[in-house]
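pinging the channel bc i need a second pair of eyes. not urgent but kinda urgent?? the chain im working w is below, pasted from the shared doc
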Amino acid sequence: MEKILIDTDMGCDCDDVGALAILCGAHNRKEAMLLGVTHAIDNPYGVRFIEKMLAYYGIGVPVGTCVKKGFINEERFDVFVKPLAADMPAKENPDSVKLMRKILSENRGVTLVTIGSYVNIAAFLQSEPDEISPLDGKMLMAQSVSAVYSMGGHFTRPEYAEYNIKCDVHGAQTFAALCPVPVVYCGFEVGEKILTGAHLKDAAENPLLQKAYGYYISRECGVDSYLRPSWDPATVYAAIYQDENALFDYSDPVTVTFDEAGRTHFSEGGKDMYLTLETSEQTAAETLNKLMK
């Protein structure tokens, strides 16, 4: 059973909700153990929405706030998190770097999942020893994290600057340079092909999931549809289920870097890999939809 620490930019897109739904379901079925959630944008409603989702699933794990104040906090990222979580009381949450350090100091063999920018992860890797641990961030990750599964980059179009990279290029570069453990990248091109959410239109089993997709897609995409690419759900699925029920294939080992424009570069040899879709897009979507509830 994978121990999961997840870093999400909840609010930027509704597929984060689908990803967290898959992870919470896996936790409750004892297929994974969710240790904590950190928030990769500075949006208080995003944090409250995460806590509301966790409460819906009956999961009591800590939630960390973005380490960088004012980072990606435009009102346009309130589309679903504000109306759906405005009833949640404001509270003091730990800083994401402190929370990561605490969780990783207390656990071994953790799988770190990133489905947002690298602002928190980069700051963690550069963190100094403190009262939580005598190890710096890089050493603490090497000790406690077995692998990172990350939604980031584009591995078929070298000219494309993927959002999670370009919104914090320095953070992505820092992560790629300093991360001491293997990273499995689920690039933009993988999730783009897998359209999930069709089952949500007429299903009210999970109202938060249903309404989040409905609000976001109708207001941001201007269509009456619940279909959305599955960048983040695919990443979470791979982190939990890939070795048991493979939807994807791993590349040969590579070294991944990001240039100043946020474009992805990779060369043969190294500790990292990227995923490719191994099955049909329809089969992948059906598999994710069954878990997204």
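so The chain has a mean pLDDT of 94. and The chain is about 40% helix and 20% strand. — does that match what u expected or am i reading it wrong
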